[in-house]
Structure formats: structure tokens, C-alpha cells
């Protein structure tokens, strides 16, 4: 199981939200479930609204190690979470109205290579 924490920033931070509290969180989670695809591996989601953002916690099924098409690092889970959140944001009237689009994840830094050749 991979766990990804993400946030969507409010369009108008500090402004009173049209929907607040449990209703807003429930609608955000419903949007995630409505737009989840099997390849996302979504198992559980929770949301917590705040004055300037909504925090999302996504529990994603880890990829099968025998799957040659999938990556097995944490970057894969972050990319799957981003895709799901972006789809949900584009199609949910509440998320689209209250929150800015999610920012794409930063690309991973290339691994450091160590030169072990004798000089």
C-alpha cells in the first residue's frame, strides 16, 4: 500500500468557503471515487478542508512486482495520485470552483553515479 498526501490550494484563501467542513470533504472524496480508474489503485481516500487548502490523503494499491509495465518506486504512486486528483478537479464543479488545479509532481532527480574505475 502506498500513501500519498496532497493538497489543493483555494482560489480565494481566507474567503469563506461556499461549502465548509464535512460536506466539502465528503464531496471531494466522492469526486475522487467517481473518477478513479482501476490503474489508479485507489483503496481509500480522506479529505480535510482548511482555510487556504484541502488536504487529501490517498491510499493506493502498490503495483505488482511482476508487472513489467509499472514502476515500483514512490514516484509512481505520486504520479497516479496526481492523475486522479487532476481528473477529479477538471470534472467536479465544487473542486473546480473552489480550488486551483493541482501542480504536476516534480520529476525525480537522476540517481547519483559513482565512478568506481581506477585512476
Mind summarizing the main beta sheet? 3 strands, antiparallel
Secondary structure category: alpha+beta
Distance between the termini: 45 Å
* Morphology call: globular
Mean pLDDT: 83
The total of beta strands comes to: 3
With strands numbered from the N-terminus, the spatial order across the biggest sheet is 1-3-2
Radius of gyration: 17 Å
Taken as a percent bin, the fraction of beta residues is: 15-25%
Elements, N to C (H/E): EHEEHH
Helicity level: 25-40%
Number of helices: 3
Task: Give an account of the 3D structure.
By secondary structure, the protein is an alpha+beta fold. Helix content is 32%, strand content 20%. The protein has a 3-stranded antiparallel β-sheet with strand order 1-3-2. A hairpin with a 3-residue loop joins strand 2 (42-49) and strand 3. The longest helix has 18 residues, at 74-91. 22% of the residues are buried.
Give structural attributes.
alpha+beta; 119 residues; three-stranded antiparallel beta sheet; single chain; 3 helices
How is this structure best summarized?
Helices cover 32% and strands 20% of the residues. It is α+β, with helices and mostly antiparallel strands and 119 residues long. It has a three-stranded antiparallel β-sheet.
Amino acid at each position: 500500500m502506498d500513501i500519498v498526501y496532497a493538497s489543493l490550494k483555494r482560489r480565494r484563501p481566507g474567503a469563506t468557503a461556499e461549502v465548509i467542513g464535512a460536506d466539502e470533504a465528503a464531496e471531494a472524496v466522492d469526486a475522487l471515487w467517481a473518477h478513479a480508474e482501476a490503474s489508479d489503485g485507489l483503496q481509500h481516500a480522506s479529505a480535510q478542508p482548511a482555510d487556504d487548502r484541502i488536504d487529501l490523503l490517498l491510499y493506493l494499491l502498490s503495483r505488482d512486482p511482476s508487472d513489467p509495465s509499472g514502476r515500483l518506486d514512490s514516484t509512481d504512486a505520486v504520479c497516479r495520485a496526481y492523475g486522479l486528483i487532476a481528473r477529479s478537479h477538471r470534472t467536479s464543479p465544487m473542486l473546480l470552483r473552489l480550488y486551483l488545479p493541482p501542480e504536476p509532481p516534480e520529476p525525480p532527480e537522476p540517481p547519483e553515479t559513482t565512478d568506481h574505475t581506477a585512476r
